[in-house]
Specification:
With 454 residues, the protein is α/β, with parallel strands linked by helices. The protein folds into 3 domains: 6-257; 258-319, no CATH class; 345-453, Helix Hairpins, CATH 1.10.287. The chain contains 10 helices and 42 strands. The radius of gyration is 35 Å and the shape is rod-shaped.
Length: 454
């Protein structure tokens, strides 16, 4: 096959343009042709264009070209640089099994309808900087062999990158995924960055907030190479990471999902996978939390590591085989209720004070006897006017203070006491408090130690 010269290509285009048919129905047929250097700079393709099987042996210049019909580049080969900068695809654009052996430049290219890159190979660098994808876009099983740039590209509908390979890394700084972005099964073998903006100022210009993902983002079953995957100032509150090793992924200033800690009080950082988890996914989410905990501990971000430890324990608790064990009849739920799995010292302190004051009141009514001086006390528990009036007396306040001291001494295992219990009820309370009090102190100390050690 003899390659077409520039003049022959232009003659062919002129022939199609002079066809006696409605302009928009023109069909540009370049199927299986060989073309050398060609310049379509600013050219308007008024009808469908078919480059199926075509071979571009020289540079292909499509800068600011307008494709007003469907554009097909099926099994097309570009041996040298292919430049589509500023080009406009008004209808569907298909690059199925296309091979770009030279640089592929789609800078500021506009794709107005569904766009498909399937099993496409980019041997040299690819640049989709500031490209606009208006409809659903597919980059399925695409292979980017060298560094790839999607800087400030915009995807207004679903963007699918299933099983796409980024061999030497990719850069998605400032990209906007306005709908679902799915990278399931993708391979990030080189340094890959997803960097967002939070209103930063560059040369007197304030960039608007852009946290990359506005809706669901899928990073499940991702393969990572020796270089890191970076997320910086990115919204990950609706991002799934099932079956992806997060141990060495770099997270900086990202936004996670939020879930309540206890009784809907307080919030903790959480994975979207937990928000949408079920019984089958609990072990997978637990593993993700283990990896995130190790990740954040290595770089000294201990508050976040604590939140992910909380999530890990929640997944363990939810895997218990019945409601009673998940909520009452096992250690894990009580570990949560009493100290937030050893991470929330505020919860542990709250219950510690509750134990101290509740038992102080119970001792007041069950009775205590002084060991040195003073009189025994055993207040009437009946709620009548006389008893209620007595509760505001100086004697009642002094006895409550004595009960509080005794309660504190019991919880802290102090040998020297000023009082002893009277009767079976008071002795039983003493035994119970001498068990649960020190346990709660230990939980509080553990949570406090984790907080300040970190």
């Amino acid at each position: 096959m003899v390659p077409l010269t520039k003049e022959e290509v232009l003659e062919k285009l002129e022939e199609y343009n002079n066809m006696p048919s409605v302009e928009k129905n023109h069909f540009y047929h370049f199927k299986d042709v060989e073309i050398g250097d060609v310049n379509f700079d600013g050219f308007k393709f008024e009808g469908d264009v078919d480059f199926t099987g075509a071979k571009f042996n020289g540079k292909a210049n499509f800068i600011k070209a307008q494709f007003n019909g469907k554009a097909s580049f099926l099994v097309t080969q570009f041996s040298k640089e292919a430049n589509f900068s500023g080009a406009q695809f008004s209808k569907e654009a298909n690059f199925l099994v296309t091979q770009f052996s030279g640089k592929a430049i789609f800078f500021k290219t506009q794709f107005s309808e569904e766009t498909t890159f399937l099993r496409t190979q980019f041997i040299k660098g690819a640049n989709f900087g500031e490209a606009r994808f208006t409809k659903r876009t597919y980059f399925n099983r695409v292979r980017f062999k060298e560094e790839t740039y999607f800087i400030e590209a915009q995807f207004n509908e679903e963007a699918i990158f299933w099983r796409t390979q980024f061999i030497e890394g990719a850069h998605f700084s400032g990209v906007q995924f306005n709908k679902m972005a799915d990278f399931v099964g993708a391979q990030f073998l080189g340094k890959t960055t997803f960097f967002g903006y939070d209103g930063i100022k560059i040369e007197n210009e304030v960039l608007p907030e852009n946290y990359i993902f506005k809706q669901y983002a899928g990073f499940s079953n991702i393969t990572l190479g020796p270089e890191k995957l970076f997320f910086k100032k990115v919204n990950l509150s609706k991002c799934s990471f099932f079956d992806t090793d997060l141990t060495n992924v770099d997270f900086t200033g990202v936004q996670w999902a939020k879930l309540p800690v206890f009784l809907n009080r307080g919030k903790r950082k959480a994975l979207y996978d937990e928000v949408n988890s079920d019984a089958n996914s609990y072990p997978l989410v637990e593993k993700l939390y283990q990896q995130l905990k190790l990740n954040y501990e290595k770089k000294g971000s201990y508050p976040e590591a604590g939140d992910f430890h909380f999530g890990e324990m929640e997944m363990k608790r939810k895997q218990l085989n019945n409601w009673w064990r998940r909520n009452i009849l096992s250690f894990i739920p009580w570990y949560k209720y009493l100290s937030g799995y050893g991470e929330k010292y505020g919860i542990a302190l709250f219950w510690l004070l509750i134990i101290l004051f509740v038992f102080s009141i119970l001792y007041l009514f069950s009775g205590l006897r002084p060991l040195i001086i003073g009189e025994s006390f055993n207040w009437d528990f009946s709620f009548n006017i006389t008893s209620l009036k007595a509760m505001f007396s100086k004697e009642f306040i002094n006895n409550f203070y004595d009960s509080l001291i005794y309660s504190f001494q019991t919880m802290t295992f102090q040998r020297s006491k000023y009082f002893e219990p009277i009767g079976r009820c008071s002795i039983t309370l003493h035994v119970i408090q001498s068990i649960i009090g020190p346990l709660q102190i230990a939980l509080f100390a553990l949570a406090l130690r984790r907080r300040f050690k970190r």
